[in-house]
Amino acid sequence: MEFQDSQGSTPLQRWAAGASDTQFNALSGAVGGFTSGVVTCPLDVIKTKLQAQGGFLPVSKGRHVGHHKVYSGLIGTGGAIWRDEGIRGLYRGLGPIVLGYLPTWAVWFTVYNKSKTYLADHHVRNQFAINFWSSIIAGASSTIVTNPIWVIKTRLMSQSSSGYNREMSVFPRSGNTPTSRPTINSPWHYHSTLDAARKMYSSEGILSFYSGLTPALLGLTHVAVQFPAYEFLRKKFTGQGMGEMTESTQQSHWLGVLSASILSKIMASSATYPHEVIRTRLQTQRRPTPGVEYLQGLGISEPSGSQSQPTKRVQNNGPQPKYRGVVMTFRTILMEEGWRAFYAGMGVNMMRAVPAATVTMMTYEYVMKSLHHAQAEGRRKRAEGAENARTMMEP
């Protein structure tokens, strides 16, 4: 129900009449990200499972002989999640997705458009350079602000209530108190977003929330490809820039926006996918419980003859995480699983990322169009009201 004032203005029109483009970009980005997150959450869960499962596989070939991968492909992974966890498993991590996408895209679109204005005002004339550097600045800002949320999201999505790593997991599961240290052979398990944040902070410290920040920042190459490409294609297809829509917008204009969204996302995802696998591995791992390296059969401490340099444990210094830094993580995955591991889940990622980007951009463009229309109507009615009041006051 819309409540109108004496001038016939709705609350949205009254707000939009005095709002700035910065507020429009923040709101449109938040709504676009939220909508995209809800629509594509199941595909995000499947992609995360495929990316992360290699990190849980045994390192030593002598352990768990015949062990097979539980997750394989879109249909197989979706079916495994459905059998083990039901519909809730497909929407695991939806909370941090909602909490994450709202500020991520709100910050991104706000900083992106502010950066474009700033660079143009400081004599940067090349439009591609403006879009490129604005994407980098906006991506870095949103990544740093929201990285803790995405770490929680990735952990929630990659865990299983029951699964192949239940007995072999080296990750402790927190008990009823924040500082409890449970048994070794149980998987780490988080019941909710807040529960995950509390347990991560109590057992791993504040730095755990910034796991994978370096590869996430390397992922700025993704937006550096996607959005300049989107701006270029949108201009070619529609003749207008991002967030620009006239009242005479036709169906062909929306088809141009749709095409630009799809093509730019495919280009960016194909070029930068391996960094997502590295980031996922860094985010989903945690330090084993002290003393775990002395347990036989779990493979934390490998025989001296079979240790390789990237994964070697220094027992005198206690247990070390398997993945440390981007370069070592890259070398470890390449040596243990081969180059194909860097493209694990890429097909699913395309099926998730392309619709996600399309929903985000289409929603952003639609909300921006609606807000600009509400702004124009609000200002028109405000001007009419002021004119009517002036006329009544005249003798």
Automatic annotation (TrEMBL):
InterPro entries, per the entry: MCP, MCP_dom_sf, MCP_transmembrane, SLC25A33/36-like
Biased composition (Polar residues): 303-319
Annotated Solcar repeat ranges: 20-118, 126-236, 252-370
Main location: mitochondrion
Highest taxon of source: Eukaryota
Region named Disordered: 293-320, 376-395
Entry keyword set: Membrane, Mitochondrion, Mitochondrion inner membrane, Repeat, Transmembrane, Transmembrane helix, Transport
Transmembrane segments: 93-112, 132-152
One GO CC term, this protein: mitochondrial inner membrane
Bilayer topology term: Multi-pass membrane protein
Protein name listed in UniProt: Mitochondrial thiamine pyrophosphate carrier 1
Coiled coil: none
GO molecular function: pyrimidine nucleotide transmembrane transporter activity
Keyword Mitochondrion recorded: yes
Bias type Basic and acidic residues, positions: 376-387
UniProt keyword Transmembrane helix, yes or no: yes
Organism ancestry: Eukaryota, Fungi, Dikarya, Ascomycota, Pezizomycotina
GO biological process, one term: pyrimidine nucleotide import into mitochondrion
Places the protein is found: Mitochondrion inner membrane
